[in-house]
Every structure is written in C-alpha cells, then in structure tokens.
C-alpha cells in the first residue's frame, strides 16, 4: 500500500503516517514539466568550462526564486565537477533541498546561496559572514547544519522528521536574528 502523500501549496511532500519526506514524490515534482530550453547565445567562452556554466545558467528556468534556479543548474553538473573527484548532487538530495527551502520560504527565510557540496549533496547558506547557517543534505540523505558566529561554529545532524525540520527552520530564524 502506498503511503498517503500530501503536497502543501509550498510544495512540501510528506508521508502523513511518518511525517517524513516522500522522496519519490519529491523527485517527480522536482523534475517539473518538460520545457524546451532556449538556445544559449554564443559567448567568447564557448567550449570552455566557463562557457558551459554560462550556457547552463541561460538555459535554467527563469521563473521562481533564485534558489530554485540555482538548484536547477546543479542538476546539470558533471561528475567530478570540481576536478577533485566530487560527486554531483543526486536527484533525491536536490528534491529534498527544494522541499526544505520551500518550507524556509514560508517563514520568509531565503538562502543567500545554494550550491553543490564537494562531499556530494547540496548546501544552502543563510545569513552573512557575521552570523551564518549552512544546511547540507548529503547524497546519503543525511542532513547537517552548521551555525557560525564569527569564529565559533556548531555542527549537528538533523533527523529527517517533521518536528526536527520545523525546529531547524525555527532555530535558523532565531540564530540569525541575534
């Protein structure tokens, strides 16, 4: 029997029984409708890594928040994207981050950057250099948060359940407002 999955207006997918994310539903929603990307204009950097990054940025969806476009761009990363053997983020990690950032946006918390993690997975950064929160969802599904104030950093793992995720979002807001 397939668990009942709910999608809120913010795009959050959860299994009613467990309160956990339904990765299959998230992955299907993240794939979104098929669109024909517009052709990138040739640039001086065509044929180079910078040119490829430019073309991916041009072809990325122009609708929605910046973080959604940044996630869409990460889907096109090649294996060894950092030239040091980094894994690209999995579709599951990207979908989970999309759901998490939708939940953050309901509290008017917007990341300043979303990018691939060299350890495999995807990370979102909130705040500034003075007070910063980095949330990483690894390709394994593990969620880590690092809260930094100046030179002091506290890193912890976050359980993948509704209460822990809501607590993370609440703690982020409190930490950044201090």
Helix-strand layout with pairing:
Blueprint: E1 5-7, E2 13-15, H1 23-31, H2 49-59, H3 66-74, H4 91-105, E3 113-116, E4 121-127, E5 131-138, E6 143-149, E7 152-158, H5 162-177
Antiparallel strand pairs: 1-2, 3-4, 4-5, 5-6, 6-7
Helix pairs in contact: 1-4, 3-4
Radius of gyration, in angstroms, nearest whole number:
17 Å
Separation of termini?
Answer: 46 Å
Structure classification? alpha+beta
Coarse morphology: globular
What order do the strands of the largest sheet run in, or round the barrel if closed? 3-4-5-6-7
Give an overview of the whole structure.
The protein is α+β, with helices and mostly antiparallel strands. Helices cover 34% and strands 22% of the residues. The protein has 5 helices and 7 strands. The chain has helices spanning 23-31, 49-59, 66-74, 91-105, 162-177, and strands spanning 5-7, 13-15, 113-116, 121-127, 131-138, 143-149, 152-158. The strands form 2 sheets. It has a 5-stranded antiparallel beta sheet with strand order 3-4-5-6-7. It has a two-stranded antiparallel ribbon with strand order 1-2. The longest helix is centred in the last third of the chain and has 16 residues, at 162-177. The radius of gyration is 17 Å and the shape is globular. The N and C termini lie far apart (46 Å). Mean pLDDT is 75; it is low at 1-47 and 57-63.
């Amino acid at each position: 029997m397939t668990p009942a999955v709910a999608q809120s207006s913010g795009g959050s997918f959860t299994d009613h029984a467990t309160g956990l994310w339904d990765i299959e539903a998230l992955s299907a929603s993240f794939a979104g409708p098929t669109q024909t990307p517009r052709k990138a204009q040739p640039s001086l950097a065509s044929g180079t890594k910078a040119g490829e990054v430019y073309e991916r940025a041009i072809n990325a969806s122009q609708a929605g928040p910046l973080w959604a476009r940044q996630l869409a761009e990460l889907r096109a990363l090649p294996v060894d994207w950092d030239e040091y053997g980094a894994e690209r983020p999995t579709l599951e990690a990207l979908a989970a981050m999309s759901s998490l950032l939708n939940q953050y946006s309901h509290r008017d918390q917007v990341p300043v950057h979303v990018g691939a993690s060299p350890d495999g997975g995807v990370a979102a950064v909130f705040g500034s250099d003075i007070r910063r929160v980095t949330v990483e969802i690894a390709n394994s599904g593990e969620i880590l948060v690092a809260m930094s104030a100046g030179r002091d950093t506290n890193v912890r793992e976050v359980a993948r359940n509704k209460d822990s995720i809501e607590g993370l979002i609440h703690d982020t807001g409190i930490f950044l407002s201090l």
